[in-house]
Automatic annotation (TrEMBL):
Name of protein: Alpha/beta hydrolase
Gene3D superfamilies in UniProt: alpha/beta hydrolase (3.40.50.1820)
Entry GO MF terms: hydrolase activity
Superkingdom to which the source organism belongs: Bacteria
Pfam families: Abhydrolase_6
Keyword Cell inner membrane found: no
GO cellular component, one term: membrane
Source organism: Nocardia stercoris
Domain AB hydrolase-1: 22-247
InterPro entries, alphabetized: AB_hydrolase_1, AB_hydrolase_fold, AB_hydrolase_sf
SUPFAM superfamilies xref list: alpha/beta-Hydrolases (SSF53474)
Entry keywords, A to Z: Hydrolase
Length: 262
Protein backbone atom coordinates (compact mmCIF):
# COMPACT_ATOMS: atom_id res chain seq x y z
CA UNK A 1 0.00 0.00 0.00
CA UNK A 2 1.38 3.46 -0.86
CA UNK A 3 2.47 5.52 2.13
CA UNK A 4 4.77 8.48 2.57
CA UNK A 5 6.24 9.57 5.87
CA UNK A 6 5.53 13.29 6.03
CA UNK A 7 6.43 15.35 9.10
CA UNK A 8 6.68 12.20 11.25
CA UNK A 9 3.32 10.78 10.15
CA UNK A 10 2.67 8.02 7.63
CA UNK A 11 0.13 9.30 5.13
CA UNK A 12 -1.80 7.03 2.79
CA UNK A 13 -2.28 8.09 -0.81
CA UNK A 14 -3.28 6.74 -4.22
CA UNK A 15 -1.66 7.90 -7.46
CA UNK A 16 -2.87 6.70 -10.85
CA UNK A 17 -3.10 7.99 -14.41
CA UNK A 18 -1.10 10.48 -16.44
CA UNK A 19 -1.49 14.08 -17.55
CA UNK A 20 -2.40 17.19 -15.57
CA UNK A 21 -2.30 16.29 -11.88
CA UNK A 22 -5.46 16.52 -9.78
CA UNK A 23 -4.90 16.30 -6.02
CA UNK A 24 -8.10 15.50 -4.11
CA UNK A 25 -8.52 16.41 -0.43
CA UNK A 26 -11.37 15.04 1.67
CA UNK A 27 -13.13 16.86 4.48
CA UNK A 28 -13.07 16.42 8.24
CA UNK A 29 -13.27 12.83 9.43
CA UNK A 30 -13.67 11.12 6.08
CA UNK A 31 -10.99 9.89 3.67
CA UNK A 32 -9.87 9.72 0.06
CA UNK A 33 -12.52 7.05 -0.46
CA UNK A 34 -15.15 9.77 -0.91
CA UNK A 35 -13.64 10.55 -4.33
CA UNK A 36 -14.23 7.09 -5.81
CA UNK A 37 -16.56 8.27 -8.59
CA UNK A 38 -14.04 10.95 -9.57
CA UNK A 39 -11.08 8.56 -9.52
CA UNK A 40 -12.83 6.01 -11.72
CA UNK A 41 -13.84 8.54 -14.39
CA UNK A 42 -11.01 11.07 -14.40
CA UNK A 43 -8.07 8.65 -14.26
CA UNK A 44 -8.43 8.15 -18.02
CA UNK A 45 -7.59 11.82 -18.69
CA UNK A 46 -5.59 13.02 -15.67
CA UNK A 47 -3.09 11.97 -13.08
CA UNK A 48 -5.38 11.49 -10.08
CA UNK A 49 -3.90 11.65 -6.59
CA UNK A 50 -5.96 11.22 -3.42
CA UNK A 51 -4.58 11.70 0.08
CA UNK A 52 -5.85 10.74 3.51
CA UNK A 53 -4.68 13.66 5.61
CA UNK A 54 -3.32 13.04 9.08
CA UNK A 55 -5.74 11.54 11.53
CA UNK A 56 -8.11 10.28 8.84
CA UNK A 57 -8.69 7.18 6.75
CA UNK A 58 -5.68 4.94 6.44
CA UNK A 59 -3.14 7.52 7.60
CA UNK A 60 -1.53 7.79 11.05
CA UNK A 61 -3.43 9.37 13.93
CA UNK A 62 -0.80 11.48 15.74
CA UNK A 63 -1.66 13.77 18.63
CA UNK A 64 0.17 16.69 17.01
CA UNK A 65 -0.15 18.61 13.74
CA UNK A 66 -3.95 18.56 13.70
CA UNK A 67 -4.26 22.22 12.78
CA UNK A 68 -4.65 24.09 9.54
CA UNK A 69 -0.96 25.01 9.57
CA UNK A 70 -0.03 21.41 10.32
CA UNK A 71 -2.04 19.94 7.47
CA UNK A 72 -0.83 22.60 5.03
CA UNK A 73 2.76 21.82 5.99
CA UNK A 74 2.00 18.17 5.23
CA UNK A 75 0.55 19.12 1.84
CA UNK A 76 3.59 21.19 0.88
CA UNK A 77 5.92 18.34 1.80
CA UNK A 78 3.68 15.80 0.04
CA UNK A 79 3.56 17.79 -3.22
CA UNK A 80 7.31 18.18 -3.17
CA UNK A 81 7.99 14.55 -2.25
CA UNK A 82 5.89 13.26 -5.16
CA UNK A 83 7.25 16.02 -7.42
CA UNK A 84 3.72 17.01 -8.41
CA UNK A 85 3.98 19.71 -11.06
CA UNK A 86 1.42 22.51 -10.60
CA UNK A 87 -1.38 20.22 -9.39
CA UNK A 88 -4.95 21.43 -9.35
CA UNK A 89 -6.11 20.85 -5.77
CA UNK A 90 -9.74 19.83 -5.33
CA UNK A 91 -10.90 19.95 -1.73
CA UNK A 92 -14.29 19.48 -0.14
CA UNK A 93 -15.49 21.19 3.06
CA UNK A 94 -12.48 21.52 5.38
CA UNK A 95 -10.35 20.18 2.52
CA UNK A 96 -11.50 23.19 0.47
CA UNK A 97 -10.14 25.46 3.18
CA UNK A 98 -6.80 23.64 3.16
CA UNK A 99 -6.66 23.98 -0.63
CA UNK A 100 -7.46 27.70 -0.52
CA UNK A 101 -4.96 28.48 2.23
CA UNK A 102 -2.31 26.40 0.45
CA UNK A 103 -2.84 28.50 -2.68
CA UNK A 104 -2.50 31.73 -0.73
CA UNK A 105 0.63 30.62 1.12
CA UNK A 106 2.33 28.73 -1.74
CA UNK A 107 0.96 29.96 -5.07
CA UNK A 108 4.08 28.73 -6.86
CA UNK A 109 3.12 25.11 -6.14
CA UNK A 110 -0.39 25.01 -7.60
CA UNK A 111 -2.06 25.23 -10.98
CA UNK A 112 -5.52 25.92 -9.57
CA UNK A 113 -8.04 25.21 -6.81
CA UNK A 114 -11.55 23.81 -6.93
CA UNK A 115 -13.25 24.53 -3.60
CA UNK A 116 -16.18 22.16 -3.06
CA UNK A 117 -18.72 23.29 -0.44
CA UNK A 118 -16.13 25.47 1.25
CA UNK A 119 -14.21 27.30 2.51
CA UNK A 120 -16.41 28.84 5.17
CA UNK A 121 -16.44 31.77 7.52
CA UNK A 122 -18.00 29.84 10.30
CA UNK A 123 -20.37 32.35 11.96
CA UNK A 124 -22.34 32.44 8.68
CA UNK A 125 -22.79 28.73 8.17
CA UNK A 126 -24.99 26.08 9.68
CA UNK A 127 -22.56 24.04 11.77
CA UNK A 128 -22.99 24.83 15.51
CA UNK A 129 -19.30 24.51 16.34
CA UNK A 130 -19.49 24.82 20.16
CA UNK A 131 -22.09 22.04 20.23
CA UNK A 132 -20.06 19.92 17.82
CA UNK A 133 -16.90 20.29 19.93
CA UNK A 134 -18.76 19.30 23.11
CA UNK A 135 -20.75 16.43 21.65
CA UNK A 136 -17.87 14.89 19.71
CA UNK A 137 -15.89 14.80 22.96
CA UNK A 138 -18.56 13.32 25.22
CA UNK A 139 -21.15 11.65 22.95
CA UNK A 140 -19.16 10.82 19.83
CA UNK A 141 -21.08 7.85 18.46
CA UNK A 142 -24.62 9.07 19.04
CA UNK A 143 -23.87 12.63 17.93
CA UNK A 144 -22.17 11.54 14.70
CA UNK A 145 -25.25 9.47 13.87
CA UNK A 146 -27.44 12.52 14.56
CA UNK A 147 -25.29 15.12 12.79
CA UNK A 148 -24.08 13.47 9.58
CA UNK A 149 -27.52 13.02 7.95
CA UNK A 150 -27.72 16.82 7.84
CA UNK A 151 -24.70 16.83 5.50
CA UNK A 152 -26.79 15.30 2.75
CA UNK A 153 -29.80 16.37 0.72
CA UNK A 154 -33.20 14.80 1.49
CA UNK A 155 -33.73 11.30 0.11
CA UNK A 156 -30.01 10.46 0.13
CA UNK A 157 -29.33 6.74 0.40
CA UNK A 158 -29.13 5.69 4.08
CA UNK A 159 -26.23 3.43 3.10
CA UNK A 160 -24.15 6.45 2.03
CA UNK A 161 -24.94 8.25 5.28
CA UNK A 162 -24.08 5.19 7.39
CA UNK A 163 -20.80 4.72 5.52
CA UNK A 164 -19.88 8.34 6.16
CA UNK A 165 -20.61 7.94 9.87
CA UNK A 166 -18.38 4.86 9.99
CA UNK A 167 -15.51 6.75 8.39
CA UNK A 168 -15.81 9.51 10.99
CA UNK A 169 -15.90 7.07 13.88
CA UNK A 170 -12.84 5.29 12.46
CA UNK A 171 -10.85 8.54 12.26
CA UNK A 172 -8.60 9.74 15.07
CA UNK A 173 -10.13 11.78 17.87
CA UNK A 174 -7.31 14.33 17.75
CA UNK A 175 -8.64 15.81 14.50
CA UNK A 176 -11.29 17.53 16.61
CA UNK A 177 -8.64 20.17 17.27
CA UNK A 178 -9.46 21.45 13.78
CA UNK A 179 -12.84 22.67 15.03
CA UNK A 180 -11.18 25.03 17.49
CA UNK A 181 -9.05 26.46 14.68
CA UNK A 182 -11.97 26.91 12.32
CA UNK A 183 -14.25 28.48 14.92
CA UNK A 184 -12.45 31.77 14.28
CA UNK A 185 -11.64 31.26 10.60
CA UNK A 186 -12.65 33.79 7.94
CA UNK A 187 -10.84 33.73 4.56
CA UNK A 188 -12.52 36.83 3.12
CA UNK A 189 -9.88 39.40 4.13
CA UNK A 190 -7.17 37.42 2.29
CA UNK A 191 -9.13 36.26 -0.74
CA UNK A 192 -8.48 39.45 -2.77
CA UNK A 193 -4.77 38.50 -2.64
CA UNK A 194 -5.36 35.09 -4.23
CA UNK A 195 -3.72 34.81 -7.63
CA UNK A 196 -4.15 31.07 -8.15
CA UNK A 197 -7.18 30.29 -10.38
CA UNK A 198 -10.09 29.09 -8.26
CA UNK A 199 -13.60 27.84 -8.95
CA UNK A 200 -16.26 27.18 -6.33
CA UNK A 201 -18.51 24.11 -6.73
CA UNK A 202 -21.33 23.96 -4.21
CA UNK A 203 -24.35 21.82 -3.43
CA UNK A 204 -27.58 23.76 -3.80
CA UNK A 205 -29.08 22.25 -0.62
CA UNK A 206 -26.01 22.34 1.62
CA UNK A 207 -27.32 22.98 5.15
CA UNK A 208 -23.86 22.91 6.74
CA UNK A 209 -22.22 25.59 4.57
CA UNK A 210 -24.95 27.37 2.59
CA UNK A 211 -24.30 28.22 -1.05
CA UNK A 212 -24.37 31.91 -0.14
CA UNK A 213 -21.02 31.40 1.60
CA UNK A 214 -19.38 30.23 -1.62
CA UNK A 215 -20.94 33.12 -3.52
CA UNK A 216 -19.62 35.61 -0.97
CA UNK A 217 -16.13 34.06 -1.09
CA UNK A 218 -16.15 34.17 -4.88
CA UNK A 219 -17.11 37.85 -4.78
CA UNK A 220 -13.91 38.51 -2.82
CA UNK A 221 -11.73 36.36 -5.12
CA UNK A 222 -10.33 37.77 -8.39
CA UNK A 223 -11.58 35.86 -11.43
CA UNK A 224 -13.45 33.23 -9.41
CA UNK A 225 -16.49 31.39 -10.71
CA UNK A 226 -19.28 29.53 -8.93
CA UNK A 227 -21.17 26.44 -10.09
CA UNK A 228 -24.13 25.19 -8.07
CA UNK A 229 -24.89 21.46 -8.15
CA UNK A 230 -28.66 21.20 -8.15
CA UNK A 231 -30.26 18.82 -5.67
CA UNK A 232 -27.02 18.15 -3.77
CA UNK A 233 -26.08 18.84 -0.18
CA UNK A 234 -22.67 19.12 1.46
CA UNK A 235 -21.15 16.13 -0.39
CA UNK A 236 -22.10 16.72 -4.04
CA UNK A 237 -19.30 14.54 -5.42
CA UNK A 238 -21.08 11.55 -3.83
CA UNK A 239 -24.70 12.67 -3.97
CA UNK A 240 -24.69 13.74 -7.64
CA UNK A 241 -21.46 12.25 -9.04
CA UNK A 242 -22.31 12.53 -12.75
CA UNK A 243 -23.39 16.16 -12.43
CA UNK A 244 -20.43 16.92 -10.21
CA UNK A 245 -17.92 15.36 -12.61
CA UNK A 246 -19.34 17.36 -15.51
CA UNK A 247 -19.10 20.59 -13.51
CA UNK A 248 -15.57 19.73 -12.42
CA UNK A 249 -14.50 19.08 -16.00
CA UNK A 250 -15.91 22.46 -17.00
CA UNK A 251 -13.97 24.16 -14.23
CA UNK A 252 -10.76 22.39 -15.26
CA UNK A 253 -11.32 23.37 -18.89
CA UNK A 254 -11.71 26.98 -17.74
CA UNK A 255 -8.36 26.83 -15.98
CA UNK A 256 -6.73 25.45 -19.14
CA UNK A 257 -8.33 28.18 -21.24
CA UNK A 258 -7.12 30.88 -18.86
CA UNK A 259 -3.56 29.56 -18.99
CA UNK A 260 -3.58 29.72 -22.80
CA UNK A 261 -4.59 33.38 -22.76
CA UNK A 262 -2.07 34.49 -20.14
Amino acid sequence: MPYLTINDAQLYFEDEGTGQTLLFLHGWGTSGRIWGAQQAELVHDFRVVTLDWRGCGRSDRPTVGNTMKGVIADLVAFIRALELSQPIVIGVSMGATFATELAMDHPELLGGVVAVDGPAYWPAQGMPLPKIIHEMLYNRVSFAAEWVPNWFAPNTSPALIDWTVRQILDAGVYIDEQFHVFAEYDPRPRLPELRTPIHYLHGELDAEIPVEVAQACAAHTPGAGVTVIQGAGHMPQQEKPAEFNAALRNALAGFASDSLTD
